From TrEMBL:
Entry keyword Transferase: yes
Name of the featured protein: Cyclin-dependent kinase 8
InterPro entries reported in the protein's UniProt record: CDK (IPR050108), Kinase-like_dom_sf (IPR011009), Prot_kinase_dom (IPR000719), Ser/Thr_kinase_AS (IPR008271)
Any Pfam family: Pkinase
Repressor recorded as keyword: yes
EC numbers, comma separated: 2.7.11.22, 2.7.11.23
GO biological process, one term: negative regulation of filamentous growth
Region annotation Disordered: where it falls in the sequence: 432-451
Organism of derivation: Pichia membranifaciens NRRL Y-2026
Family of the protein in this entry: Belongs to the protein kinase superfamily. CMGC Ser/Thr protein kinase family. CDC2/CDKX subfamily.
GO MF entries: ATP binding; cyclin-dependent protein serine/threonine kinase activity; metal ion binding; RNA polymerase II CTD heptapeptide repeat kinase activity
Catalytic activity: L-threonyl-[protein] + ATP = O-phospho-L-threonyl-[protein] + ADP + H(+); L-seryl-[protein] + ATP = O-phospho-L-seryl-[protein] + ADP + H(+); [DNA-directed RNA polymerase] + ATP = phospho-[DNA-directed RNA polymerase] + ADP + H(+)
GO cellular component terms, A-Z: CKM complex; mediator complex
Length: 451
């Protein structure tokens, strides 16, 4: 006969914890491949059932810990909850697929499909030791797939807000995967402005001018500006607007990013009220008036960086229009004449390419999961490396500690694999996208709709 307290919460938790498999039981962790303010991303191989020998990327969120023991448990960060909730809902071939979420010893592990490359790595390979231009087929296919994934997000009322080459993954078979939804946010039926929840969004080099001018309300156009910056970087193999970020003195006052805006003005020229009618409504407009007037140099920049296709230049120009109300959207960009001319986009962005891109570096000796000496495996060879070498190649990720948890969409934490009710006490089942679409995610994929 069961004891009196058998059906109470305490024994129930104990039974669930005993039956739950550890992340080490499920995956053979090879080492970490990336590190940042959020924590670390590990490469792992499946050990059980259908996952045997399959590759995965495990994102472990940073916690206050020492020797694997959490010293001060502060709960689940708002950014982590937002990323988990959206990744559980979003299903698209050009967005990183979340396999499962594991909560173990008060640490969160998000298990994603593994991608062997990212665009930052590819750009670095083409620019070192000498410049090797990316082929038109690879460039066009990559851009089309980025727009395809972004179009799906926007049609389902999600802003990414941190698009950059480091967050655009590429699988071994050449499929683009948009990753890192930590700053992503739903933008329909908002209770507060987007600015209220996150005052700093998008890595500085890819930040749209309306954000630099202090916009309280903004649209999916901020993501399209970032796509324009990525296109320019794939063409020139260097960032288009490589400004220096002004650090915050305190959390209450957001500094004006003067140097970054200057880099934009020097290439695109100074905007006018004729080009951008709402320009004088932005909080930082008086700061803009202090700048010297610059002419547009974007045509000269394009020609100096080997650009010769007028259709490619036309798309780049439309992605980098100052006025967000006029800037091209993702669906229209996918229909642009550049994608209709030969060579046309293909599913495998590496198709026809002779380039052999190196595999990701794997850093061993991680005290969080593995332990042991600090060394690196790179293409099978073992050598000592600095554990921060991969992190130094990453673009800086903006601070998202102030993310607004109130508008994160449908969390539905009950469906999260291996997460107990006792450890998740956030509000549940927000009405994120009721009645849209017919796929298993509850989203509608209109990227193939007739235009």
């Amino acid at each position: 006969m069961a004891p009196n307290n058998f059906f109470t919460m305490g024994p129930y938790r104990a039974r669930k914890d005993k039956a739950r498999l550890s992340v080490i039981d499920k995956y053979d962790v090879q080492g970490y491949i990336a590190a940042g303010t959020y924590g670390k991303v590990y490469k792992a191989v499946g050990k059980l059932g259908n996952d045997v020998d399959k590759l995965y990327a495990i994102k472990k969120f940073k916690s206050d810990s020492k020797d694997n023991e959490v010293m001060h448990y502060t709960g689940i960060s708002q950014s982590a909850i937002r990323e988990m909730s959206l990744c559980k809902e979003v299903k698209h071939k050009n967005i990183s697929t979340l396999r499962e979420i594991i909560l173990e010893r008060k640490c969160i592990y998000m298990v994603f499909e593994f991608a062997e490359h990212d665009l930052l790595q590819i750009i670095h390979y083409h620019s070192h030791p000498e410049m090797k231009p990316i082929s038109q087929s690879t460039l066009k296919s990559a851009m089309f797939q980025i727009l395809q994934g972004l179009s799906f997000l926007h049609q389902n009322w999600i802003l990414h807000r941190d698009l950059k080459p480091a967050n655009i993954m590429v699988t071994h078979d050449g499929v683009i995967k948009i990753g890192d939804l930590g700053l992503a946010r739903k933008f329909s039926n908002q209770l507060q402005t987007l600015y209220t929840g996150d005052k700093v969004v998008v890595t500085i080099w890819y930040r749209a001018p309306e954000l630099l001018l202090g916009a309280r309300h903004y649209t999916p156009a901020v993501d399209l500006w970032a796509v324009g910056c990525i296109l320019a970087e794939l063409l020139s193999l260097r960032p288009l607007f490589k400004g220096e970020e002004t650090k915050m003195d305190n959390k209450k006052h957001m500094p004006f990013q003067e140097n970054q805006l200057l880099k934009i003005l020097q290439i695109l020229g100074t905007p006018t009220l004729y080009d951008w009618p709402s320009l004088n409504n932005y909080p930082e407009y008086p700061q803009l008036q202090r700048f010297t007037l610059f002419p547009s140099n974007i045509k000269a920049w394009y020609a100096n960086n080997g650009g010769s296709d007028p259709n490619c230049f036309d798309l780049l120009s439309k992605l980098l229009i100052y006025d967000p109300a006029v800037r091209i959207n993702s669906l229209d960009a996918m229909s642009h004449k550049w994608f209709l001319q030969s060579p046309k986009p293909v599913q495998n962005i590496f198709e026809g390419s002779t380039m052999k891109y190196p595999r990701r570096k794997i850093h061993k000796g991680d005290s969080d999961i593995l332990g042991g000496a600090n060394n690196s495996i790179y293409g099978g060879a073992v050598s000592n490396v600095n554990a921060n070498s991969r992190a130094n190649n990453k673009r800086k990720i903006p601070n998202s500690n102030n993310a607004n948890i109130g508008n994160i969409g449908s969390i539905n934490m009950n469906n999260m694999s291996n997460m107990s009710n006792s450890q998740i006490n956030q509000k549940r089942n927000y009405a994120f996208m009721s009645g849209r679409g017919s796929n298993s995610s509850g989203f509608e994929d209109n990227s193939k709709r007739k235009r």
